């Protein structure tokens, strides 16, 4: 009888430890300040263990970014309401708006890394940016588009391109949190106020008259 091959254990766990630790370190310190030694200490492994899985710090960052983007998108999509079951326009858009804000608030480490990219602190190859967008932002936007398309089909929104409506809706949700280019601080308003304002503005602009 042939001997059953011995299953190698430990490696996936070590890799998961490194990825989780790197997400915390990158989110806390940013890319430039986060050395591999700090990630190793956070993960309770040696730097040699990290280099067994990731050749460079950039490769580690790109992997953490893609995998955490997948997790963020998965959480958002799970919370998104059923566009058919929740047919009332204001209630449906309000649920989408709150799901959008929660997915930002529930993953601060991931969005700290995203902020590093937005600020130009790290130049990533286009292939890495595409992997990140495919794993997270594109999936999220496409699900918002799916909800809005169902509303257009029911005659609850004007027959405008749903992607354009989705981008406007996201911009309305994010606007109170944005820092003004001339230095004004973000508006200190609640999530309820933010979503209510975004929904009412969107329905005034795109609702069927």
Question: What does this 3D model show about the protein?
Answer:
It is a single chain. With 209 residues, the protein is mainly alpha-helical. The protein has helices at residues 11-29, 36-43, 47-53, 57-79, 89-105, 108-118, 126-135, 137-153, 162-174, 191-206. It starts with 10 loop residues before the first helix and ends with a helix. The chain has a single domain (58-206), classed as Orthogonal Bundle (Tetracycline Repressor, domain 2), CATH 1.10.357. It has ten helices and no strands. Residues 1-10 have low confidence and may be disordered.
Notable traits:
209 residues; mainly alpha; Tetracycline Repressor, domain 2; 67% helix
Q: Which class in CATH terms?
A: Mainly Alpha
- Give the termini distance in whole angstroms: 77 Å
- What's the order of the H and E elements? HHHHHHHHHH
In CATH, the homologous superfamily goes by the name Tetracycline Repressor, domain 2
Q: Give the low-confidence spans.
A: 1-10
Globular, elongated, flat, extended or rod-shaped: what is the shape? elongated
* Tally of separate domains: 1
Strand content: under 5%
Mean of pLDDT: 85
Query: SS-based structural class?
Result: mainly alpha
Q: Number of helical runs?
A: 10
Instruction: Please tally the β strands and state the result.
Output: 0
């Amino acid at each position: 009888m042939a001997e059953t091959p011995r299953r190698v254990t430990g490696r996936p766990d070590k890799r998961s430890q490194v990825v989780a630790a790197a997400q915390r370190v990158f989110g806390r310190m940013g890319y430039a300040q986060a050395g591999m030694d700090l990630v190793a200490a956070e993960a309770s492994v040696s730097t040699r263990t990290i280099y067994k899985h990731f050749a460079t710090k950039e490769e580690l960052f790109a992997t953490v970014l893609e995998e955490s983007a997948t997790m963020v998108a998965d959480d958002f999509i799970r919370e998104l309401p059923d566009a058919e079951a929740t047919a009332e326009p204001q209630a449906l858009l309000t649920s989408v708006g709150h799901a959008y804000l929660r997915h930002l608030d529930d993953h601060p480490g991931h969005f700290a890394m995203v902020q590093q990219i937005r600020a130009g602190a790290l130049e990533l190859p286009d292939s890495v940016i595409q992997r990140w967008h495919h794993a997270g932002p594109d999936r999220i936007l496409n699900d918002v588009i799916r909800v809005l398309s169902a509303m257009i089909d029911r005659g609850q929104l004007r027959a405008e391109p749903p992607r354009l409506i989705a981008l406007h809706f996201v911009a309305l949700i994010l606007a109170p949190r944005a820092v003004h280019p001339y230095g004004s601080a973000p508006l200190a308003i609640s999530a309820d106020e933010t979503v209510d304002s975004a929904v009412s503005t969107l329905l005034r602009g795109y609702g069927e008259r």
